[in-house]
Every structure is written in structure tokens, then in C-alpha cells.
Amino acid sequence: MYDKQKLIDLIREKALKFGDFTLASGKKAKYYLDGKQVTLDAAGAMLIGEGILELLGDKLPVAVGGMAIGADPITAAVITMAGVRGVPLKGILVRKEAKGHGTQQFIEGPVKPGDDIVVVEDVVTTGGSSLLAIDRMEAAGLKVKQVICIIDRMEGGAEAFQARGYSFTSLLTIKDFGIEPPTN
């Protein structure tokens, strides 16, 4: 079962850093969330896998996945916890660049055109990485139903997904850490 407070405590201990940072979106920030410090931790992976499965409920897609490399451990955690529960769920990986040999594709995993997909992400700021993953998934004929992240920084990502017709939810928001999002 998902324990929200344990995940907050783990992120606060291992992933939340304060200082001056430039985010992947290009934005400047006074804090940084290094999601891999938690997604690549056994306790963190279990909490995240359980939390995302809880958010999915009974409406399971064929697969979950997102942009490599950030989404890869999240995908692995979710499908592993699904396997522990005996729930059929697949994972996919979306490459930043097409594979240079073999099939030369962006999408890796046991899916086919028409399959329902939920995009997973560690931290969402503007949503750019997940939107690129969505574009690649849809180009492969997959049907993206939803975006789920671990932490929403509340800086426009939710609105970007909703503007394109995707539902969005997160396990946590930055407010869970006592940080107020920018008001611009």
C-alpha cells in the first residue's frame, strides 16, 4: 500500500536540494529535485510503484512508460509492483534519439499500435519532456490516456497537458514540501 508520508520523507532526505539551479526547461530555480535519488532506491521504487498503481486504479492501460532515462526506473517500479500483484501491465521506453541500428525506432517495449498508454515522469515543471514522449508514442500509433508524475512543481506542466487533452495527476506537489510555486 502507498504511504505518501514515507515518500515525502524519502524525497526530502535524498532528492530535494536547495541552491541556484537551471532546470531542463531552462528555468532558474532555488531548489532542485533529483528524482533518480529516489526512483533508483529500493524503498523509493516500491513507494512509487505502489503509488502510481493506486492512482491508476482499475483503469489499467496496456503499458506505462516515458522518456528515457528519467522514466525508466519509474516504469520498472510500476510494472514490477504490478507483477507482484498479479496484474498484467507492460512497460515501454521512449528514446531521445532513434536507435541507430536494428529497427531504428524511438519506442522500445511489447506494445502495438492502438494500445493505451500512461506516461510516467519523475518531476514535471513545464511538461516538455513528457510532451516529446507523447509525440513519439502517438507517432508509433499508441493512444496516450494520461500523464502521471511523482512531483508536480506546479509551474505550467499540468496546464500544458490539459491544453493538449491529456489528464494529469501527481503523487505529490511541491506544496507537500512546504514550497510555494511561483505566482507568475
Explain how this protein is built.
By secondary structure, the chain is α/β, with parallel strands linked by helices. The protein is built from six helices and eight strands. α1 crosses α3 and α3 crosses α4.
| SS field, number of helical segments | 6
Gross geometry = globular
> How much helix is in the residues?
25-40%
CATH class: Alpha Beta
Largest sheet: 6 strands, mixed
User: What's the number of structural domains?
Assistant: 1
Supply the helix-strand structural class: alpha/beta
Give the integer mean of the pLDDT values: 93
CA distance, first residue to last residue: 37 Å
Number of strands: 8
CATH topology title: Rossmann fold
Widest beta sheet: strand line-up: 5-4-3-6-7-8
* Corresponding CATH architecture: 3-Layer(aba) Sandwich
Gyration radius over CA: 16 Å
Helix and strand element order: HEEHHEHEEEHEHE
Give unreliable regions as ranges: none
Summarize the structure.
This protein is of the alpha/beta class and 184 residues long.
Main features:
34% helix, 8 strands, 6-stranded mixed beta sheet, alpha/beta, 6 helices, 184 residues, two-stranded antiparallel sheet, Rossmann fold
Please specify the SSE layout and strand pairing.
Layout: H1 4-14, E1 16-22, E2 28-33, H2 36-39, H3 42-56, E3 63-67, H4 72-85, E4 90-94, E5 107-108, E6 116-124, H5 128-139, E7 143-152, H6 157-163, E8 167-173
Parallel strand pairs: 3-4, 3-6, 6-7, 7-8
Antiparallel strand pairs: 1-2, 4-5
Helix pairs in contact: 1-3, 3-4
